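EI: anyone free to look at a 352-residue chain?
SC: sure, send it
EI:
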Amino acid sequence: MNRCKLWTVVMMAPVLCLGGGLLVGDRAQAAEDLLRQLQTPINNGTQSRSRNEADRLMRQGSQQQAAGELEKAIASWKQALQIYHSLGEPVAVGLAYDFIGISYGELGDFIAAENALRRRLGVARDHKDFLGQVFGLNNVATVLLHKHELDSAETTLVEALEMARSINSLEGEGLSLSNLGLVAFGKGDFRQAIKKYEAALTLRRQVQDPVGEANTLNNLADAYWRLEEYPAAIANYGQALRLAEQVRDRRNEMRAIDGLVIAHNSVERYERSLDLLDRRLEIAQEQNNLREQFVSLRTASQVYQRAGKLAQAKDSLEQALPLARTLGEWSEVNRIQNDLYRLQLAIQSGGT
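SC: here you go
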């Protein structure tokens, strides 16, 4: 049901991540980062009517992205890309390719995403932009991970790691190690994944990258959960949640909540799960994200049912139903209607 939502911007370069791994909290943050980058010319300062139009299109695309209109955003960025190409502005061209590839990834079109991101990597290589290559290699590797091409992803990330070390980029090294942890996780080697994540955490703390740190903490928690080391998993989800709250990293906050809800449900701490889901719903409403609002309400209904609170479960489903219709999730509409009928019968027969 969920569209891929794993892409956004970090600092001056958009960077992808897997396993819930957006590196900045939400689309609004991505838009703000882009607007800051375009406040001054991306090249050496040359201005022209064409350049101004390209910058306007990039800003327009960022606003469309923030509103969830990804197809429109891609169209705007492609128009800007053509202008930047004609003006011979490689940094701007690379930025446009980054945003196009990231948005294709969010749409789940990984072939188009890989094509755009490899072009971005080519721009960085042509201009000997080594840090851009580190981020570009990580982006390409992330697409390969989504395509389950783990060996190719690993080869790409090892190249990124070696390059990051060669230019003394602790940020790039931390990112590459965290993504190498995802490769190990994908191969089922959870102990090796933990080693990579822990090494990445050290670096991300050194460079004071709280968003990257929260992402890696969530990854680390996932690995401990798969090893059935539940206290360690809960502790790391909890750290990720606190850190994400502090820096308003809403995506990592929601991801940590999801992990904690599963953990608390497993030991029947339903009230704590419901408190967390209330917070998740608030975040989704702040972002006007109908899909995540639906997920929050649907999950809350399931928890209420497990807790034996059928009236509250019914109420949550009744709130979720119009969202499912708006989203065009017709199989969910049918499922919810069936569940509502079943819950109504149970309540009439003496349920709570």
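EI: The beta strands are 7-10, 13-16.
SC: 👍
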